[in-house]
Amino acid sequence: MKRVTVIGAGSWGTALAMVLADNHHDVRIWGRRAKQIEEINTKHSNNQYLPGISLPEQIRAYEKMEEALEGTEVVVLVVPTKAIRTTIQQMVEKLQSKVTIIHASKGIEPGSHKRISEMIEEEMYNSSFLEHVVVLSGPSHAEEVSRRQPTTVTVSSHSEQASKYTQDLFFNQHFRVYTNPDLIGVEIGGALKNIIALVCGLTEGLKLGDNSTAAIMTRGLTEIARIGMKLGANPMTFAGLSGLGDLIVTCTSVHSRNFRAGLMLGRGKTLEDVLNEMGMVVEGVRTTQAAYELATKLQVDMPITTALYRVLFEHVRPQDAADELMGRVKKHEVEDLPVDLIKSTFKED
Length: 349
Description:
Elements: E1 3-7, H1 11-22, E2 26-30, H2 34-42, E3 60-62, H3 65-69, E4 74-77, H4 84-94, E5 99-103, H5 116-123, E6 130-137, H6 142-145, E7 151-157, H7 160-170, E8 175-179, H8 183-205, H9 210-230, H10 241-252, H11 257-266, H12 271-278, H13 283-298, H14 303-313, H15 318-326, H16 339-345
Parallel strand pairs: 1-2, 1-4, 2-3, 4-5, 5-6, 7-8
Antiparallel strand pairs: 6-7
Helix pairs in contact: 4-5, 8-9, 8-10, 8-11, 8-13, 9-10, 11-12, 13-14, 14-15
């Protein structure tokens, strides 16, 4: 049994706390709102984020971070990307011993273009309390995990030992955990699939049909792999759980915030109205900005991401962006292959 502190009492943080409690760990969860903390401790529920779900009674919630972190061995970090740095800065002041940090957030930071593991390491560079950083990612809606429906995820770290440690921590009959040594690929796949989910929602909102959705998902995966490989990722990672798996579930499910946000945009609502109505963080919006900046910097062609960026931040009409995507110059589907290999594939007429 390990003492584990989950930082972030939203739907995903709460669902992961349930997995850990099912595995008989000493689980603490930290949140900012006193009423929510009281509800978790007295009613064993978190109805704002997981309505109708009964939480294991051994999960204890805390409003004071120092109490939640007291004696902990593992921190599971589940906060929005924009809150990563400030949350880590708070944690460093409260920690008393070394911890392994497992992050289950998905995004890239605009401006710096850092992945979340890089942000954590940067903020804890001068701290003696960081043991390892691990990422947990994959197709995993909190609503289904909290109902103990079969789910598979992957974990990755620079340390093989830390990956296996995390696998053991979470693995049970409902929650299957794989390991993957490709930290860059796992983080990039998990972050960028939110962009493609937003576009799939837009496509649905515009009533462009199933063919269009399939095209966006397929070519979207190409964009994710293209920039991931440029950053040093293993291309095979994007055929796995944190790539294709996460893309499918986020682009097709009613549980997906990013898909729902795109759907509302496609039906004519403004970005401001969508975010206000959602009431929760839509990571794909911020990640679109970061990915667009990074693709421009690295000179990586990402037409779907660019089209969404123009819709979100340059006020281009979604239908106009769709028309521009379809009207681009003709290309080979497997355009990253050497030209000579492509030519040798086709017979002369």
